[in-house]
Amino acid sequence: MFKSILLIGATRVGSFGDYVAQELIKDSTYFSRVGFFVDPSRPADESKRARLRELQAAGFEIVESTNFASPEPYKGFDCVLIFLGNHGLYMQPTIIDAAIKAGVRHFYPSEYGADLTVGENWTQRYYKYKVETREHLTLRATQVADLSWTAYVLGRLTEWSVISHFGFDNKNRKARIYGRSSGRQSLIGAADSAKYLVETLKEPLSDDSKGKQRTYRISGSNPTYAEIFEILERVTGKKYEVTYLDVESAKEEEPQAKRAGDIDAELAASHKLIQGREGTLVPKPWDNDRFPHIHPKGVEEVLREAFATERTRKWFGLE
Ligand SMILES: NC(=O)c1ccc[n+]([C@@H]2O[C@H](COP(=O)([O-])OP(=O)(O)OC[C@H]3O[C@@H](n4cnc5c(N)ncnc54)[C@H](OP(=O)(O)O)[C@@H]3O)[C@@H](O)[C@H]2O)c1
């Protein structure tokens, strides 16, 4: 399968790509070459600089480039995995075209979330650049023989599901949720999801996925909001005051945020609609059974660990 892989956007400590990198560090002997694309013109705090030193010490290649559009950094890699965050997603078609020129024939686009084909997800602002990227790959596959890509569908990462961006005020034990207490979502811990992702890299492409998309749907469980708050209350020992709001009322927030030029608020409003309509519930069947040696932790265990970790506590607004 893929012997040489390049990860983009995976060196910020605590990002999803960083979780994948941490899994690769544990055992990367399967791959002959693992590189990390690093743009040296981007800001780097001490934790990122330390991470880069760790990756180099573990034998990984740091591929420095300030130009995503040049084929040069992608040369010699079979597969490029993109982990760019929301503000960088628009660059994916440029990256894909440059990497194709360099000879890359498989991509993991920066998705790692809901199934884009479920409900109204395909037309939501939150997924605009993810959809455009899939469309771009579909187009390029009509022009480039043997081009294929992996859609890695996980639902939501448990650690991200309880942050302020999604209506949680953990410091004051309050939450404003668009939807109902019975609303469900699919959750999996970030480290477990990263473990599964690394395993998918080792699976050969089937004949059906050559020249097109292969999809993995891998998650952990489908708790309701009521269940999530019961867990949070056990984990923190405190009661949460939860206000449930009409999902459709979030529709007005998105154009308001757009007019104000606030992209994060626009994305948050769009996510409220997706989440409130259960758009992050991953349809079954799931592919977890392909990797029976992985036993994902439950929501409570993941949150207990995250609420006890300094980095994630800060991120939850607790310190
Ligand atoms: N389903 C879920 O619950 C969930 C949760 C988290 C993430 N995800 C998905 O995982 C992927 C990565 O998300 P993340 O939250 O880990 O990302 P992130 O931390 O926001 O960003 C990852 C990296 O992308 C690079 N980047 C971001 N904006 C950029 C720009 N404008 N120009 C150049 N580089 C830019 C940055 O790299 P440098 O600054 O280091 O250069 C950044 O460290 C996304 O597809 C996201 O939707 C899903």
Automatic annotation (TrEMBL):
**Keywords per UniProt:** NADP, Oxidoreductase
> By what name is this protein known?
NmrA-like domain-containing protein
Q: Which residues form the NmrA-like domain?
A: 3-252
Record-linked InterPro entries: NAD(P)-bd_dom_sf, NmrA-like, NmrA/Isoflavone_reductase-like
Pfam families reported in the protein's UniProt record: NmrA (PF05368)
Q: Which domain of life is it from?
A: Eukaryota
Tell me one GO molecular function of this protein. Answer: oxidoreductase activity
SUPFAM superfamilies recorded: NAD(P)-binding Rossmann-fold domains
Which organism's genome codes for this protein? Exophiala spinifera
